[in-house]
Amino acid sequence: MPTQTAESQSKLTPDDALAMLKEGNQRFLNGTQRKRELNQQVIQTAQGQYPFASIVGCIDSRVPLSLIFDQGIGSLFSAKVAGNIINDDILGSLEFACKLAGSKVVVVLGHTSCGAVKGACDQAELGNLTALLSKINPAVLNIKEPQNPELRNSKNSEFVDAVALENVKLTVQNIRTYSNVLRSMEEQGAIKIVGAMYDVKTGSVSFLD
Questions:
Q1: Element (H, E) at 53
Q2: Distance (Å, rounded) from C-alpha 194 to C-alpha 192?
Q3: What is the mean pLDDT of residues 120-149?
Q4: How far apart are the C-alpha atoms of 113 and 198, rounded to whole Å?
Q5: Distance between CA atoms of 74 and 47, rounded to whole angstroms?
Q6: Beta-strand pair 192-198/205-207
Q7: Given 3-state DSSP classes, what are the helix, strand and coil percentages for the chain, each rounded to the nearest 5?
Q8: 136, 143, 146, 191 — which has fewest CB within 10 A?
Q9: pTM beyond 0.85, yes or no
Q10: CA dist., res. 141 & res. 167, Å (int)
Q11: How far apart are CA 182 and CA 172, in angstroms?
Q12: Banded model confidence at residue 2, pLDDT cuts 50, 70, 90
């Protein structure tokens, strides 16, 4: 499988980039991953990188971004943080990835059974984690059902996954709200900003576009 180059990246549209991610996840599910000479890709990317997609994902070890999208070295920008939330540093990283390095799509990737989301559902407090989980609280509040407080916690997997999905949607909105650069690029058709959910039980990625 060839490594991304400036030429191949420049020919891609945002829709092309999304299709490549979807096709890669399908190969991952089917067990038909492409053969790559990774050592050769190290050499080929030593003088520059031309990723076609940028992904904001959770730090969860069960969600290895390059593997689940069947991509090699030099194809993806990866920003990983518990709960796939954004802050100024991640926004700046995404602006670099898209405006300066040519990435065609930004994907906010949440996942089922997310530990950070469970912590937010339980109103957990622990050092600096407390402030991070507060960024997920709006998603918790947006999910109105169940109303029974005894069911609005990490023991209710359906509630947890509903909050995780809502958190993805809010993060996509926040990217557009807090990054004039990325919002403008999307309005001009240069990039797409989309959400997606990964199922830790199946390995499948479902896109919200």
A1: strand 53-57
A2: 6
A3: 97
A4: 10
A5: 11
A6: antiparallel
A7: 50, 15, 40
A8: 146
A9: yes
A10: 10
A11: 11
A12: confident
Mean pLDDT of the chain: 96
Collect all residues with Cβ–Cβ distance below 8 Å to 104 and sequence separation of at least 6: 9, 12, 13, 14, 16, 17, 52, 53, 98, 190, 191, 192
pLDDT band at 45 (very low <50, low <70, confident <90, very high): confident
Closest CA to 203 of 34, 63, 54, 59: 63
Across the beta sheet with 105-111, what order do the strands follow?
Answer: 76-80, 53-57, 105-111, 192-198, 205-207
What single DSSP character describes residue 119?
H
Band (1; pLDDT cuts 50, 70, 90): low
| Neighbouring residues of 200: CB distance < 8 A, sequence distance ≥ 6 | 60, 62, 63, 111, 112, 113
Q: Which amino acid is at 104?
A: K
**Angstrom distance (rounded) from CA 50 to CA 82:** 26
User: What percent of the chain has pLDDT above 70?
Assistant: 99
